[in-house]
Structures are given as C-alpha cells and as structure tokens.
Predict the 3D structure of the following.
Amino acid sequence: MSQTIVIFGASGDLTRRKLIPALYELERKGRLPNQTRIVGFSRTQYSDDAWREYLAGTTQQFVGPKFNRARWEEFAKNLFYRRGDITSAESFEALDTALRELEGDQPGLRVYYLATAPEHYETAARHLGQAGMTVEQGAPRRIVVEKPFGTNLASARKLNAVLHEAFQEHQIFRIDHYLGKETVQNLLILRFANSIFEPIWNRNYIDHVQITAAEAGGIGTRGGYYDSAGVVRDMFQNHLLQLLTLMAMEAPARFDAEFIRDEKVKVLRAITPMHPNEVAEATVRGQYRKYRDEPNVRPHSTTATFGAIRLYVENWRWKGVPFYLRSGKAMECDTTQIVIQFQLPPHMMFASGPRSVKEANRMVIQIQPAEGVQLHFHTKVPDAGMQLRLTDLSFQFRQKFSDDMPDAYQRLLLDIMHGDASLFTRSDEVELAWSIVDPIIETWEAGQPPLALYEAGEWGPPICEQWMEAQGRRWFNVCPALP
C-alpha cells in the first residue's frame, strides 16, 4: 500500500531535527515502502526544491557520517511542500486536492503529523474532519499528536473530545518519544521473557523503586514555555509515569496494543491521587539558583525545575512499595535510569554484611545515555576474611550490538505506519495520568511544599537527600559510565 505522511509545522524544529532524519534513516535501511510520499505543510514560503535543499543540510547535520548525498537525492524525490495556514479551512481543502493529485490512482494510508505548537492541535483536527480528510474507506487515516497533551485534566479531556469528533480512537497516536527508546521497550522483554526476574518482581522482595530523569543543562531558550509548564507537566505526567506503568504492570495475555495499554491503565487506576495535605509530605520541589536569570523567565518565578514525588500502586503486587519519581534540570549529569532496590536477606550471618536496605542488592536499568542493565550484588573480598563488597554484573547495549542505537522516532514512525499503537498512549491513560499530577501541581502553585534552591551540577536540593534519608532510604546518585 502506498502512503503519504503529511507534516504540519514542516518548517519547525521538530521536523528538521527529528522527523526528516528519522524518515531518511528508515529509507536508508530499506524500511520505508517504495511508494512513500512526505508532504510538508506550513506558512513559510518554499518550493519543493527549496524545501528539499534546506532539509538536505539539516539532515546531514543531524544524521552525521551516515548521510549519503546520492541516497538523499533518491529519498528527496518523494519530498513535497505545500504552503498553507493551519487556521484556514480553505488551506485544508487545497491540501486535500494537492494530496489527491500526488496520490493519483494509488490512494493509501495517510498519516497527519502535528509537529506544530500545541495550541494548533484542536484547530488542525477540526479542519481535517471538516474537509473529509479523516474518513477511512479502505484507506487508513491516522493523526499523530505530540506532547504536551493538554496542560491539566480539563484541557486533556477537551482535546480528546475534539480529536474524537474527527477521528476514532484507533486512528489517534499520542506520541511520547521516551517509549521509542530501545531500553524502554526492553523493559517488557526483561520482565516477561526471562523467568529469573518475574518471581521476585513484587512487594515480597522489592523495597522500593526509583525512576530518575536528570538533565545536566538548564532550560536554555525554552524559558517562555518552561516557566508556565514546570517540571511536573514537562516530565512527570508523560515520561516518568509511562516508565512507572511499564515497571509495575501485569503481564498482558499477548503482545497486543490494546492488551498492553489495558495493563498500563490498571496501574494508573491503582494510584490514588493525593490530597493537598499529603503533597507537602510526599513531594519535594526545587529550582536551580540561576533559573530566574534565564531568558523569558519571570524575575520572581516560583516554577519548579526539580521535583521528587513518592507514589504508591495500591494493588496486590505492589502494596506498600513506594515508587520514587525524580526529575530536574541543571543536575550533575544527563541520565534516565530506573533503580529496583531489593530488600535485605531475612537473616544476615556475616558480620560485615549489609545492615540496611541502602546496602542491599539492586538492579539499575539505564534508559539513556549508557543504555544497559546492571545487577549489584555482594561478593567476598579476596584475601580479607569474610568481608563483603557490593559489585556488579553489567550489560551494555553498545558493547553487545555493534550498530548504533536507533533514534526513538524511527521506531515510533514505523509503528504508526504499521498501525501498532503499543507504544502510544490511549485517551483514558492520558486522563488518568493528569488526574494523578493535577493535585500536585495545584498544591505546588499554592506554595507547598516550600521551594528549595539548589546549585547547578547537584542532584537537586539537599533537602531531597534528607527527605529520602528520613524514610530509611538513599537516592542512587551515580552518573552512568559511557562505553
């Protein structure tokens, strides 16, 4: 089947940095169907050739040494550009006419990718519906919506309602690029394709779980967006809660999109949203000291650039096991990692053995940048009596697989073309996630708990370490060693 990928916001940053390089790489690897057309739509004035030449330079920049000019020229023959205004119904009618001309007698799949500012999502969906461009008559129609999907539960529900006026749920792909990362997908393999882990993946053996997404850089040029969003909207509602669901979900009956998403939804339903008086005790919010000096940030901003949240999954498997979610800007290093902290053995016969859960076995799953898995366990120190030391078994993707790790967008774009929604969020999943974080955002914006400052290059505010120590636990503050 032939296919047409329409990119709204074709002159934007996402298109040049991620989408076109990913599509070029898929073509280079021979994974795109022969009859694939890519049509850009934006207000910027481009001819087909001008857009192709502009993208040649940006794609070479982001693909690097793998870029081949001759291969690009073949790929670029299927790149087209149509100028239009996303707020104009007439532009969508003209676009539909242009697409029909390009498709000729080979109509097939159409993917509408909204690589625009979020305020245009509803407008684009309405115009697509009004123009009759969403109707499936033997030719699938799909829409891709980038994050942020709303700014709270009410806005997410409204956006879902608008999308459902024009599209059916199976046509909607809400994209979270974290779920396209190889190590995130490998969580399902790690848990459900290996018999050695699942028997101990529960409250009987696991003391707690830490999920950290740290970024060494500050907000850079994103001050206008970030100062109104903050760390919870930017990272917790989507990325971190998605990782939590994959860690905590039950095994689906089979590897099927709806079965997988059903199990993820069950996890979110098992998390009871906090009351405001619980938020101050179960969360930490912070801001790096020079945040207010960043461009487009309010001089007296109280927006959190760091957050730590303790959640409980109230079901049979996880009752009483805290899940600690942590994310921040201007931290010590770039890392996204999951730490499964196991409990102590029921009886420790060795005098030098671990005496607190801080020293017990743990598994560390590195999502990025040093993708891999480490298992920390105790061994005897040679020639030192019965002294014990925590050591590790380490697996790193880049050492075992010679090819470069593919960009997440490559996998996600392929899944969209194939109609596989396993790694995309469903409407009820999005709304449940917002229902969990909304009370936290509202309480933080009301000034509780107090905003704690931290220096750039630290693991967040010192009070966060004290908060964890008061619970008898310790953050795993280790930057990954790159291979």
About this structure: The first strand starts at residue 3 and ends at 8. The two ends are 41 Å apart (CA to CA).
